[in-house]
Structure formats: C-alpha cells, structure tokens
Amino acid sequence: MIEFQHVTKRYGSEMGLDDVSFKLEAGKIYGLLGPNGSGKSTALKMIGGLVHPTSGKVIVNGKKSDRRIAESVAFMSELDHFYQSFKVKDLIDFYSSQFQDFRMERAEELLQFMKLDPTKKIKQLSKGNRGRLKLVLALSREAAVLLLDEPFSGLDPMVRESIVKGLLSYIDYENQIVIIATHEIDEIEPLLDEVLAIQNGKIIGRRDVEELREMEGLSIIEWMKKTFKE
Fold first, then answer.
1. What CATH number is given to the structural domain containing 172?
2. Are strands 194-199 and 73-76 parallel, antiparallel or unpaired?
3. Exposure of 128 by Cβ count < 10 A (0-12 exposed, 13-18 middle, 19+ buried)?
4. Of residues 10, 31, 9, 35, the one with CA closest to residue 20
C-alpha cells in the first residue's frame, strides 16, 4: 500500500504539492493525470524516495519513503539518466548489480521484445529506443511498486504501442502497484483501474474507471475534460 498523509512540498516560493492525502492498493494500475507542472512528477519522486515532503508523510508498504525505498520501487523517469558511453548490455549489467530483484532472463527477453541491440552504445540510440530501454530496465525488476513518469513523452506511435504491449505482458497485476503519471492517455486508457486528477498540486478528482464508464457513460478523457473545466 502507498499512503500520502497531508503531504505538502514547496520548492522555494513554488508549491509542488498542497496538502495531498490518498491511499493506493496493490493489484491495481493507477493513472495520475494532469497537465505539465501539476505535481505528478513530484508525487512519483516522493514515492521513490527521491524527494522529501516539506510536511506530511509518504508511506510505502508500511515504511516511510526514503532513499532505501528504491529496493522495492522501480522508477521510470521521464528524463534520461544514462551513461552515454555504456552499451545497452553494460547498462543491463549495471542495473543487475544494483537491484536484487532484477531478473536478467526477463531483461534479455524484453530486449528482444523491444527490438533493442544489446551491443549498441546508449549515445547511438534514437529517442524512441531510449524510451524502450527505460521500460526494459523498469520491467526487469520484480518490484512491489512500478512508477512510470510520462512514458510516452515525445515518442512516436510505434514506440507507444511497444510500451503498452510491454506493460500488458510483464506487469504482475495481482501483486504490484503501478502508477502511470501522464497527460497523454489515449493508449493507456484500457489499462487503468483508477484515475486521480491532479492540478496545481492538489488532487481534484478520483474515480474507478469501470464505474465511470458504466454509471456515467464517460471515457477517462471525457471525465478529465469535465473535471479540469470545473
């Protein structure tokens, strides 16, 4: 379980999150949806122990989130943090050395699935292939929590399709908590169990996707337009 208890985060005079409280449970895929600068990345970084609250608490599986929480949290950042001189296989080996839950057999399978050449240097990869590589690294771990920050940012439709297929094939739907933070939801709408709308650092709405469709006849996009307009 993940719990935010009255979490506020300030960056100087800027507000990243403003008194945010919510709980997330294992066995679900959540969409954290909102425009750029709404607080999505800040929330994910707090779960991953990369950013600390100004006030309040972030609890992940019964523990206060800090740097050590990386042992149980796999975080796919929107940004590239790769050693440019590394080959793809070097990066795979590095991740394997850092995380006990990293599964080399799964990584090799994912490299084939994503059509990535393990002998290529990182600096030779296109932006699309770098996006695929980031997903390989995240999905090769058996982490209790999987965080994907803007996984489709700047990627072409073919790469997006690969990412969605990868999620369908390699997520542990019963045991993992998966959070996808994005403002682009066309491709992932069928994956999501619940959605949280965030704007100006506040959670302004939360809905079960199936109930949203059956009771109100709304898609996630339609609900978002209605919610953010209000």
1. 3.40.50.300
2. unpaired
3. middle
4. 9
Q: How far is CA 27 from the centre of its chain?
A: 15
Q: How far apart (Å, rounded) are the C-alpha atoms in residues 139 and 170? A: 7
The number of domains in the chain is 1
Tokens of 103: 């599964």
**DSSP helix/strand/coil, 172:** coil
Q: How far apart are CA 144 and CA 171, in angstroms?
A: 10
Given a cut of 70, is residue 230 above it in pLDDT? no
Domain limits for position 61? 2-229
Residue labelled with tokens 């050395």: 97
Which residue carries 């008194």 as its tokens?
19
Per-residue pLDDT tens digits for 65-124: 988 888 899 999 888 778 888 999 999 999 999 999 999 999 999 999 989 999 999 999
pLDDT > 70 fraction of the chain, expressed in percent and rounded: 99
